[in-house]
Write a structure and sequence with these properties.
Length: 407
């Protein structure tokens, strides 16, 4: 089964401009499937998961590229950074676009030496799990989200409504294609295998983890904090590891695109803002598995019900940008007086504020805090409350309720 991905036109366009296209993302989000489908068999496919191929790439990269000349798709490039200078030379020799398509399970700028090797020659794109439009077969018509009345109305005509039970089933199940597209896949078995075969292996390669049980405790403690402010000291204490270890392991999860850190918005005029990021897992199914919620019903009724909903919404909004090849202009607001706004979209000097609430009846009180943004001295655009309402209705002159099913 294949769901058309929003990123497809962006990949095709990038391949017409750059000699190298790099697609990053966590394991199992569909990077290889997407690129192989777009290549239509017209380029050689080689994976560095193969030990023999990897050995050749690391010991004799020049011979590797002779054996696998462009156009070529190289899977999991992070395992053989030795190839990168040779890819650069090959790109410079011909100056042709689309020579090398690469995938990596770590963010590009965190791979040692990669940015220096391919600067100016590579288009870097990010892929997450399936977005809801992609699951609905609407992936090729899923522009970046903006909380304007026109955009909300447009999405309302395209998306099907979700009941509370259906929404939390999506959240609990997760968005990785192998499980999202096939309901016959047993969820607990899938995520158990995912943690053992992918996360622990990737992190072991990156961080040389000696105590796998300690790392699993850390994963679970991190998942339990999704949707909240990051407190490294508390996280390290609960995982029973040193603070420096927790900081390092968190950076690895961020590099592997398992978690996302939402930074606070600040300008030179707002020195009272806190500087602590908010932590989000990028796949809610993985977060729910690690925190041991046995069913969508128990998840919806439990202590993580609100944070996991916020996590799902933030991940969906991120997909709407990353899957269009765009950098998400996302921040949150919180000052030392505890005034907080869940999400700010900042574009062209205009701030679009959003609250995320697990309620079907939002009110003007939920957007009252938007007034604190006036101290920033920037124009404030349309905003609203992303919630469980069945339809979008005005709350104030510039805000509205935004049903979660339109995201």
């Amino acid at each position: 089964m294949y769901a058309p991905r929003t990123l497809e036109p962006t990949v095709t366009g990038a391949a017409q401009q750059f000699p190298v296209v790099l697609l990053t993302g966590a394991r199992q989000v569909g990077k290889t499937t997407l690129l192989r489908r777009l290549s239509q068999g017209e380029r050689t496919y080689v994976t560095l998961d193969d030990p023999l191929v990897l050995n050749l790439a690391k010991t004799d990269p020049a011979l590797f590229l002779q054996r696998f000349p462009p156009p070529v798709l190289i899977d999991e490039i992070q395992y053989a950074p030795e190839l990168l200078p040779y890819i650069k030379m090959a790109a410079d020799r011909t100056s042709q676009p689309g020579l090398f398509w690469l995938t990596g399970s770590q963010q590009f700028h965190l791979m040692q030496g990669v940015s220096e090797s391919l600067a100016g020659r590579v288009a870097v794109l990010h892929l997450l799990g399936l977005s809801r439009p992609e699951l609905l077969g609407q992936g090729l018509d899923a522009p970046p989200f903006w909380p304007t009345p026109v955009e909300i109305a447009r999405r309302s005509t395209q998306r099907s409504k979700l009941t509370l039970k259906e929404l939390y089933w999506l959240i609990w199940r997760g968005a990785l294609p192998a499980i999202a597209l096939n309901t016959a896949v047993e969820r607990n078995l899938f995520y158990s295998s995912y943690v053992q075969t992918y996360l622990q292996r990737d992190v072991r390669d990156l961080a040389r983890v000696g105590d796998e049980l300690a790392f699993l405790r850390f994963l679970r403690a991190t998942a339990a904090r999704t949707g909240g402010l990051l407190n490294l000291a508390d996280l390290a204490r609960d995982a029973d590891v040193a603070p420096n270890t927790a900081k390092h392991w968190l950076s690895i999860l961020q590099a592997a695109e398992i978690v996302y850190l939402l930074e606070p918005y600040h300008t030179n005029l707002t020195q009272r803002l806190v500087k602590t990021p908010k932590l989000y897992f990028l796949d809610t199914g993985l977060a729910a598995y690690l925190t041991e919620w046995a069913s969508p019903e128990t998840l919806e009724a439990g202590a993580m019900s609100g944070p996991i909903l916020e996590t799902w919404i933030v991940a969906e909004l991120l997909k709407s940008y990353w899957h269009n090849g765009r950098r998400p202009p996302f921040y949150y607001y919180r000052d030392k007086d505890q005034r907080e706004i869940d999400l700010l979209l900042v574009q062209d000097g205009i701030i679009y504020p959003l609250e995320i609430k697990k309620t079907a009846s939002p009110s003007r009180e939920d957007v009252r805090g938007f007034g604190t943004l006036e101290r920033l001295g920037l124009p404030i655009g349309p905003g609203g409350v992303i919630c469980l309402a069945e339809q979008s209705l005005p709350l104030t002159a510039s805000t509205q309720s935004i049903p979660a099913w339109v995201i």
